[in-house]
Amino acid sequence: MKLFVSTLAAAVFGLSALNTADAQQNQPACSSVYTRPELLSLTPAQWTNTRNVLSAMQRDGWFGWFAYLHNQWFSQIHGNSQFFPFHRRFVHDWESVGRRYSGSFVQPYWDEMRDYRVPAASQVLTSNWVGGNGQGANRCVTNGNQGGWTMSFPSNHCFSRNFGNNGNPTSWYSPEYIQSFIQRDTTMAQFRPDIEYSLHGVVHINIGGDMLQGYSPNDWIFMLHHTNIDRLWWQWQLNNRMWTMDGPNFDNSAISLDTNIAYYNQPIRSVMQLGYGSMCYQYASNPIRRRALDSGLESALINSLPKDVLSAWFPDTAKKPAIVALRPPPPLASAAPGVSSGSGMPYPAKLTQQWIQMHKYNKADVDKVESDARKFVDAMNKAGYRSPV
Ligand SMILES: [Cu+2]
């Protein structure tokens, strides 16, 4: 009888927890869900199909339309809590247009953190994929899937990139650091600047050219980049933050799940939960390069960081049972020639003055994010941490 009562209590509690979740989500589960892959995991046939869709979208003016929209709403969708929901909806709309051309089209992501030591050496930035730096006075891109394109917004110009630091972008953000604030941040008011002023900004700046402008969706890297940013938000959401939405709206009022997404007349709650409503997609882990990140990276952290450093920067990992540490340390990932993978961690690039002014970011908030990232690098290097990435 006692057993029966407690089972019943558990059932009732379980049910009420479910009701709360339902009330928040308020949307039906998707009948089918497609998966967004890492770009480099596409098969040759999938990449050909993707290129064809993108060329058709360019021909029909969709690159120009999305560049226009992003530029038009620029000040409402950056520097406040609209950042994640707007860009999730925006990329999903883009992807939905692509799926009208080919039902098998999905928007891949670029696992940028894997290339953080030497971004210019990324396979993604080669002629096999999206192409490299622009050439000549106008920095026109001549290779990759957008090589030689003329973009229509704001007026006809060659599609351009202008890599930072004279063509050799300095390091951006390590997977360890991103993982660290995914574990530490408990509010959107913390998490949003931690991404927007770190990885989000330095990728835009270091790719340069069209990516440096309000009309950055002219470069398909914008979509690869924001799909990755969206994936990181989803990782954070899965870490007990599924419905966390707080901080300022663009007019400085408090944002909530019922606030409309800028431009879109739909509440933020409609995009919160992947696999529900019209958000019928999910993310694959990186089948090519993921292994070191998922198991190897975590065991590297557990094996090589002193307990106090681990709990300060990776509170969730620190709580994991010690059995994870019994895994053998991962083999070092192969690095670009001349780069010693597994050596000390470099400082990440900072945002430029121009970028901060263009977005009207609060300089003190940017400084806070950048100094946290540097403290992290110092702590890892002081602990003698050697990254498998
Ligand atoms: Cu944006």
Automatic annotation (TrEMBL):
One of its GO terms (molecular function) is oxidoreductase activity. SUPFAM superfamilies: Di-copper centre-containing domain (SSF48056). Pfam families: Tyrosinase (PF00264). Residues 1-23 form the signal peptide. InterPro entries: Di-copper_centre_dom_sf (IPR008922), Tyrosinase/Hemocyanin (IPR050316), Tyrosinase_Cu-bd (IPR002227). The keyword Signal applies. Residues 78-95 form the Tyrosinase copper-binding domain. Keywords: Copper, Metal-binding, Signal. This is Tyrosinase copper-binding domain-containing protein.
